[in-house]
Structure formats: structure tokens, C-alpha cells
């Protein structure tokens, strides 16, 4: 039975406490009998399914914006929004193509919309965010809250919310990065998708009311209640974010691994912006080179400002504004700002809220070579 033989790779390890059973004719016949009953002996696969440490099937990838941009814009000529639903070029990690994942259990794509276009309102179980890369006039409506969006702003469209995107008629072609947990929700076999019965939803609040209500530092509207699993703020603007990083940098040495790093939070709880996806913005000071660390959880970075490089799993990736790169779970990574005079900013989103909620978060500093990887 050649098919069973392929499945029955024997992952033996000659280590106390690990499975190490050699194949014999008698055992192979026994394994065949087990297979007919839709069962199998654990000791042939135990070392594979319980690795000593996480083994990501994702590989580190850098997606250069200057390579992708023209292809993203070309989709406008080739497919209509009516037919395609959304014109998105998604980031397809070579190790994760079966799940359309950019890294780990995260999906990411670049979406383009022209002035006057509006996408159909819909809701899904996956949680999403958009990070605006270029263009003017972009907006998103989430459960009746309309939010105007500029470059480097990001907006949430959480699990279960009605949402739609558009670009104002007087705007310009807009490109943004979509980030979702689609692969995770599909793996959990919990994904639903609904198109809004009216195709569009009504705006039921003053434009940008979530910012007016929830984006006032250190202040919470008296009596305002919010118990949902995501941030009521929904939109996070670049201006105040950059200012916060610059202010924080005046009073901290920063993290040895990330420089000046701030998490976007739910203003009610102080926790992550959504249940499954967290986000942060970090600032690398001129010439800053961080030390390497690794942790469980997958991260997608988008260069919001500046240029530099990251070493991920021993490989160097040079990035500039608008480039996107990923760090797979448990991969060593360190970042460097290539400019001696300008700061560099990296937006990131990740599944660390999932890791933390499930008790799976673990982090480790790179001990050798003064905390820096050697290039492989
Ligand atoms: Fe959506
Ligand atoms: Fe990290």
C-alpha cells in the first residue's frame, strides 16, 4: 500500500522520552490493519506533530511596493468591482499558498479603488483592518459610523460588523493594505459571510464620530458604555500616532528589540484593538539598530516612513516606504534604520492577542553575538 507508506513516515528520534520505534514486518502489517479502521499509531508521528519548538511553514518575505503598485493599479482596467467584488492582489507566502496566507494564519492584500466607487456592504466572521497607503478621499463605514481616511491611517472592520469601503468622487485612486484573520477563522471552521440586504448601509452618525468620542487622550466620555470585543474607536490616525511616538521617545530608551514601540489599543480596556488581531506602530531613531528576539505569533509589517533593513531568520531584507514584510512565528528578527538623520516608522499587525488569550505567547532574546544574528 504505497499511499499508507507515504503517510507512514516514521519520525524516529534517538532521545529519551521521544518515539523511536523501528519498522518491522510485523509492525507494518499491524499499521495496515489500523489504517483500515481509520486509526494509526501515535509513535510513528509523535515527534512530527509535537515538535520541540514551533516550526513555521511560512517563510520571511519582503513585498516591494515599487514592484507591486503597477500590478495593483492594472486590476482596475482588467476587472470591474461588480464582478470581482473587491480588486485585491493578495500576498501569497510561498509556504502558505494552500491557505492564501501572507504569514501564519494572517491574510493580507493590496486593494485599489477609484474615486466614486463604493464596495458592497457586508459582514463576516473574520476581523479586518485597512492601512491606507496612498490616495485621497478613502472612507469606510462600520455599523453606520463613517470614517474618512488619509495616508497611514488605519481602520478596523471587526468580526460581525457591517462594513463597506469607498472613495469620494472628488478624491484620487486609493490603495490600501487589508489585513485579516481569514486563514485562522477558516482553520477554526467558523467563518460566515453575509452581504447587506440593501447592498449599502445608511450612515447613522456624524462623520468621524468615533474619533470625536473615543480619541481624546486620557479622557473617556462620561457614561459611555462599550462591552464589545473590539475598540469603539475604529479609526487610528497617523498624525496623533506619530506625535505620540515622538513624545514617548523623549522620555524612554525604548525597547532593545523594537525601538520606540506603541500598541494601538481599545480605549475602554487598554487591550488589543480586536480579539484576534493586534496592531502597533514603532519608531526607529536615526541610525538605530535593534537586537534580535523571537516570539510565538506572526507579524506583518508595513513601512510607514523611512527606509532600513530587517534581518529575519538570518536573512537580510532592505525596505523603504510602503514595502511590506512578514516575520513568521518563532523566527529571529531585528530591525535597523538606514538613515542617520531621519526616523523610520513600521506599522505592524499580528495575532499576538490570540497567542496571549490561549496562553501560547513566548518570547526569547537572541543571546549570542551581542544579540545580533549572523547572516546566513
Ligand atoms: Fe470585509
Ligand atoms: Fe518582535
Q: What does this protein structure show overall?
A:
The protein contains nine helices and 22 strands. The longest helix is centred in the first third of the chain and has 14 residues, at 65-78. The strands form six sheets. Strands 1-19-16-21-14-13 form a six-stranded antiparallel β-sheet. A six-stranded antiparallel β-sheet has the order 2-3-10-5-8-12. The model has no long low-confidence stretch (mean pLDDT 96). Helix content is 19%, strand content 28%. 40% of the residues are buried. It binds fe (ii) ion (2 copies). One fe (ii) ion binds at residues 122, 124, 128, 157, 163. Residues 122, 124, 128, 157, 163 line the site of one fe (ii) ion.
Instruction: Tell me the span between the first and last alpha carbons.
Output: 41 Å
Tell the overall outline.
Answer: globular
User: Which hetero compounds are present in the coordinates?
Assistant: fe (ii) ion
> How are strands sequenced across the largest beta sheet?
1-19-16-21-14-13
Amino acid at each position: 500500500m504505497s499511499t499508507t507508506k507515504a503517510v507512514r513516515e516514521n519520525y524516529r528520534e534517538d532521545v529519551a522520552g521521544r518515539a523511536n520505534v523501528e519498522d518491522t514486518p510485523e509492525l507494518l502489517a499491524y499499521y495496515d490493519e489500523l489504517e483500515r479502521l481509520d486509526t494509526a499509531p501515535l509513535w510513528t508521528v509523535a515527534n512530527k506533530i509535537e515538535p520541540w519548538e514551533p516550526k513555521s511553514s511560512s517563510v520571511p518575505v519582503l513585498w516591494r511596493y515599487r514592484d507591486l503598485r503597477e500590478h495593483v493599479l492594472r486590476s482596475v482596467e482588467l476587472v470591474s468591482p461588480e464582478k470581482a467584488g473587491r480588486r485585491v492582489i493578495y500576498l501569497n507566502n510561498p509556504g502558505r499558498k494552500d491557505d492564501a496566507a501572507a504569514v501564519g494564519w494572517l491574510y493580507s492584500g493590496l486593494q485599489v479603488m477609484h474615486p466614486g466607487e463604493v464596495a458592497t456592504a457586508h459582514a463576516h466572521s473574520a476581523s479586518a483592518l485597512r492601512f491606507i497607503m496612498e490616495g485621497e478621499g478613502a472612507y469606510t463605514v462600520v455599523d453606520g459610523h463613517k470614517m474618512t481616511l488619509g495616508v497611514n491611517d488605519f481602520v478596523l472592520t471587526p468580526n460581525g460588523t457591517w462594513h463597506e469601503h469607498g472613495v469620494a468622487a472628488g478624491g484620487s485612486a486609493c490603495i490600501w493594505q487589508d489585513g485579516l484573520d481569514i486563514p485562522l477563522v477558516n482553520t477554526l471552521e467558523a467563518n460566515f459571510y453575509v452581504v447587506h440586504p440593501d447592498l449599502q448601509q445608511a450612515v447613522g452618525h456624524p462623520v468621524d464620530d468615533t474619533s470625536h468620542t473615543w480619541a481624546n487622550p486620557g479622557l473617556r466620555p462620561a457614561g459611555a458604555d462599550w462591552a464589545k470585543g473590539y475598540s469603539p474607536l475604529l479609526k487610528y490616525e497617523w498624525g496623533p500616532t506619530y506625535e505620540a511616538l515622538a513624545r514617548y521617545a523623549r522620555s524612554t530608551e525604548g525597547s532593545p528589540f523594537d525601538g520606540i514601540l506603541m500598541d494601538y489599543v481599545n480605549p475602554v480596556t487598554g487591550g488589543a484593538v480586536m480579539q484576534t488581531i493586534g496592531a502597533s506602530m514603532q519608531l526607529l531613531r536615526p541610525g538605530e539598530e535593534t537586537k534580535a528576539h523571537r516570539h510565538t505569533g506572526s507579524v506583518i509589517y508595513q513601512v510607514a516612513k523611512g527606509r532600513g533593513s530587517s534581518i529575519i531568520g538570518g536573512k537580510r531584507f532592505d525596505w523603504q516606504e510602503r514595502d511590506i514584510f512578514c516575520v513568521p512565528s518563532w523566527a529571529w528578527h531585528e530591525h535597523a534604520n538606514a538613515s542617520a538623520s531621519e526616523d523610520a516608522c513600521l506599522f505592524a499587525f499580528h495575532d499576538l492577542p490570540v497567542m496571549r488569550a490561549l496562553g501560547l505567547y513566548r518570547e526569547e532574546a537572541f543571546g549570542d553575538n551581542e544579540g545580533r544574528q549572523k547572516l546566513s
